[in-house]
Design goal:
The complex is a heterodimer of chains A (about 110) and B (about 450). With about 110 residues, chain A is an all-alpha fold. Chain A is flat, with a radius of gyration of 20 Å. Chain A has a domain of about 45 residues. Chain A has 4 helices and no strands. The longest helix of chain A has about 30 residues. Chain B folds into 3 domains: about 80 residues; about 190 residues, no CATH class; about 170 residues, Rossmann fold (3-Layer(aba) Sandwich), CATH 3.40.50. In chain B, helix 4 runs antiparallel to helix 5 and helix 5 packs antiparallel against helix 8. With about 450 residues, chain B is α/β, with parallel strands linked by helices. Chain B is elongated, with a radius of gyration of 25 Å. A 6-stranded parallel sheet of chain B has the order 3-2-1-4-5-6. The chains are: A mainly alpha (about 110), B alpha/beta (about 450).
Chain lengths: ~110, ~450
């Protein structure tokens, strides 16, 4: 089996897993979800690193360098901001005079 | 041995990414999940640095340092109200990285006199096309959200036709480079045309349609990363790109459902224009009932159940902290306060939830539309703060309305409605809202934050 067919398998299965996992994220966390998947998409750093470091020609090195800067700032900024957001989501800590504690939507 | 280690690091990263996203389904576990994903990212980076094709680390170190310096304030300084444009910008960055890697790859292959094969070229072509569309589209979207560009839809005659022609041009160029990978002019022209097309795609879209656009561009950028993975034969790129693509896809489907647009309508970016053309019942002969802060305060102070409906106006007025204070006060007097969040309230999916969480509203008081809609019947007051179209009953009963069929929050079922609004201008869609003329509705005009602060002061005196 050629490697491209294998890659296609990976793509289809990963998209399937992604769909199953992500469609269960409650609307409450949709903004952190977008920020998180964007930060994870900063993984294009992996390709950028190879382009910047393979010393194949100047054009590739420079383009790779710019790509490394873009992807790194996306990863660093992305993970920090997701953490900042998720830190803010708190349960009601007050006395339990409220209606019965609600489970997060579709969480269970 | 080294190759095995690299692959193991990628496998670990993939598992950690998926675990991390899975923990994002629970607000109490989400933070830990994202820390796991961060560890996964570190694994993948360390693994990549061992790649034997990397021989020169100077540019890499420079890029990592510079990127960290730029990224750190982007994570710590950006206010939560600016989150939509921040997300748009992060899409720009990830699509830019993918695009540049693609160009570097193509240039290197051509430079070495070994044009890529058909399969690699297909991947490269899609990578460049989607990447460039995303880069230009997200820059325009971020500009509109930040109001550097007019957030009003920019439309002109024959727009759809022109967009169609340009897109057909891109497809023709794509087919050309795939058929003959050595046609360099077609490759580089495609970069330019895709950039122009990305901008043209987003320019006609108004501010309130941004949730759909941002989600859609998110899935494009994910697919661009995927294509990069195919082009350079890297599995971790394919996996995380498809995770990103899935989240964008799912969110754009959810958003389009919440706005009652068909998904094909969304997919081809044809939104925005048709709504702008709308305009129905005029409000002639109807009167609104204006209310003062004192009277509104009394209504709220004696309410058993208050349902707050926040909209983008709340974010603009930075009123979320005042809302929380008001809610606490009502609760202290024995009332119950719930927050009803419409899926498209704000400028991106889940935007209101983040703003309210930032203002220390516990997340178990934030309710989705489906959970809360049946409770409006027993609500004493529905407090609408800077929201308009998401509570417009025309969506339910006026077939000629452009928003007909869009699911709305049943604010009109509450015993009374208080609307905090700047003035009587119509919502973004330019439609009159009959809720404002209902006899149970009172309008509290003015800046939302000022009004809420006033209400807090008055309730204390009741």
């Amino acid at each position: 089996m050629s490697s491209q067919i294998l890659e296609l398998y990976v793509f289809v299965l990963a998209a399937f897993v992604g769909y199953m996992v992500i469609s269960r994220v409650p609307a409450l966390l949709h903004t952190p979800l977008m920020a998180a998947t964007n930060a994870i998409a900063g993984i294009s750093l992996v390709g950028s690193l190879i382009a910047a470091g393979a010393a194949r020609n100047h054009v590739a090195t420079i383009l790779g360098f710019v790509a490394v800067v873009a992807a790194t700032s996306n990863i660093v900024g992305g993970f920090i901001i997701v953490d900042r957001m998720l830190k803010m989501f708190k349960r009601d800590a007050g006395p339990a005079k409220q209606a019965p504690a609600k489970l997060p939507p579709s969480g269970a | 041995m080294r190759e095995a280690f690299i692959q193991a690091s990628y496998l670990a990263a993939s598992v950690l990414f998926i675990l991390g996203l899975r923990m994002l389904t629970r607000p109490d576990k989400a933070r830990r999940g994202m820390q796991l994903a961060g560890v996964g990212m570190l694994c993948a980076i360390v693994g990549t640095l061992l790649n034997h094709t990397i021989v020169d680390y100077r540019w890499i170190i420079g890029g990592l340092v510079l990127g960290t310096i730029i990224g750190y304030p982007m994570g710590t300084r950006v206010p939560m109200t600016a989150m939509p444009q921040r997300i748009a910008l992060s899409l720009t960055l990830s699509a830019l990285a993918a695009t540049l890697v693609g160009i570097a790859e193509y240039y290197t292959l051509m430079d070495a006199g070994t044009p890529p094969g058909r399969a690699t070229m297909t991947a490269l072509g899609f990578e460049i096309m989607l990447g460039c569309i995303t880069v230009a589209g997200t820059i325009v979207a971020a500009g509109k959200l930040q109001e550097w560009l007019p957030s009003k839809p920019l439309t002109y005659k024959g727009q759809n036709l022109l967009n169609g022609v340009v897109f057909a041009g891109i497809v023709a160029l794509l087919i050309t480079v795939i058929a003959a990978p050595a046609t360099q002019w077609a490759f580089y022209t495609m970069i330019g045309v895709s950039l122009v097309f990305g901008a043209m795609l987003v320019l006609p879209i108004g501010g309130a349609d941004m949730p759909v656009v941002v989600a859609l561009l998110n899935s494009y950028s994910g697919l661009a990363s995927c294509a990069t993975g195919f082009a350079i034969g890297n599995v971790i790129l394919i996996i995380s790109g498809s995770l990103d693509g899935s989240s964008g896809f799912i969110l754009s489907v959810l958003m389009s459902k919440a706005m009652n647009r068909s998904f094909t309508n969304v997919l081809f970016g044809a939104f925005g224009s048709e709504v702008a053309a709308g305009g129905t019942k005029s409000a002639e002969g109807l009167t609104v009932r204006s209310i003062g802060v004192e009277d509104a305060a009394i209504q709220l102070a004696y309410a058993q159940l208050v349902i707050v409906i926040p909209g983008y106006g709340m974010a603009v007025a930075q009123a979320q902290h005042a809302v929380r204070e008001l809610a606490e006060l009502v609760e202290k007097r024995g009332g119950e306060v719930k927050f009803a969040v419409h899926p498209v309230a704000g400028r991106m999916p889940g935007h209101m939830n983040v703003l309210l969480a930032e203002a220390n509203v516990p997340y178990d008081k934030l309710y989705d539309m489906d959970e809360i809609n049946s409770e409006f019947d027993r609500a004493d007051v529905a407090l609408v703060i800077g929201a308009n179209d998401v509570v417009n009953p025309a969506a339910r009963n006026d077939k000629s309305s452009p928003i007909y069929g869009m699911p709305i929050l049943n604010a009109d079922h509450a015993k009374s409605v208080i609307v905090l609004k700047r003035g009587m201008s119509a919502g973004f869609a330019g439609i009159e809202n009959e809720l404002f003329y209902d006899k149970r509705t009172s309008m509290l005009f003015g800046d939302a934050k000022t009004s809420l602060t006033g209400l807090v002061g008055e309730i204390k005196n009741v």
